[in-house]
Amino acid sequence: MSQLHHDRHGNETQTVHQSVPTQRPGDARPSDSQADEPRLAEVTDLADLTEQAEAGARAGIEDLAEGARPVAFVPLVTGGRRGRHRGRRVPGPARRPAAYLAAALVGAGGLALIAAGDRASAEETDVAESSSVSVAAELGLDVGSQAAVPEADAAARLGELTASRTAREAEQAAAAQAQAEADRLAAEAIAEAARPDAVLPVDGARLTSGFGSRWGTVHAGIDLAAPMRTPEKAAMDGVVLEAGPASGYGLVVYLQHENGDVTVYGHMDEILVAPGQVVRAGDTIALLGNRGQSTGPHLHFEVRLGGLGGEKVDPVPYLRERGVQI
Questions:
Q1: Which phi and psi angles does 179 have, rounded to 5°?
Q2: Which CATH superfamily, name and number, covers 206-320?
Q3: DSSP annotation of 289
Q4: Distance (Å, rounded) from C-alpha 171 to C-alpha 323?
Q5: Is the predicted pLDDT of residue 257 greater than 80, yes or no?
Q6: What DSSP string runs through 89-158?
Q7: Contact status, residue 251 vs residue 229, Cβ threshold 8 Å
Q8: Which end of the chain, N or C, is less surrounded by CB atoms within 10 Å?
Q9: Residue 207 pLDDT greater than 90, yes or no
Q10: How far apart are the C-alpha atoms of 286 and 240, rounded to whole Å?
Q11: Are 23 and 90 in contact (CB under 8 A)?
């Protein structure tokens, strides 16, 4: 019985050695030294690489499905007082081809991403270049000409630009000056249209003596009293015929108007115009005074029809006919 048990144990041990080949860590497998490992070919066409990877993956899956075998569980006997059985799994076939296929798929995917990125960058570059070309075309620039401009040509172009700018500025200045002149003339025309044909020779004056007989003689004008050196004005537009001293008037000014009539201003303290000077209605011609045959500061004003030797008429109705109230 004892011998039988010993023989049985020996047979089991021999069976284990015959079924499970021993292998230490680090030892090379027979398949590693005999079979050539598959190598990845150089990628030249991304589409072709993808098709090869898919075909290889399908072939690898079919091989794995056909070669799959159940893992054998072989009992092992360990020494000791009581024999115990311990199982050890038989390693399956090597799966390096599947790993290579997976690596190929990963590489193909990475190359696809890189190629897609390159195409996106190329498209962005094309869009930027087309935008630049569009802007240059809008500005009228020649995008095909990239040659450097010679210094002489550049200087000539700068000179042309400067001359054009100068001419443009001159035209603008001339236009502005013409506009200013036109505005001035328009303002003068407006003022001329608003200017009266006749005015009272002394503003705020008081009529102290009228036209006609006075103290046994003829008073050929009117007297307008006002403070000393009050401005005296031309009654209407005209030209100065005479200006200076005169008997009985002290100082006198004669103005002849467009219709030929003459107005006379006497007794002033100072004369401000000269013979031949053109004046307009309302212009100051003298400062009121008390010179000559005078009893106080006032203006002696006369109207003579048709010239210096013309008929002397009453200035009051003459001025009223021209819109001046006294």
A1: -65, -40
A2: Glucose Permease (Domain IIA) (2.70.70.10)
A3: B
A4: 47
A5: yes
A6: EPP----HHHHHHHHHHHHHHHHHHHHHHHHHHHHHHHHHHHHHHHHHHHHT--TT--PPPPHHHHHHHH
A7: no
A8: N
A9: yes
A10: 12
A11: no
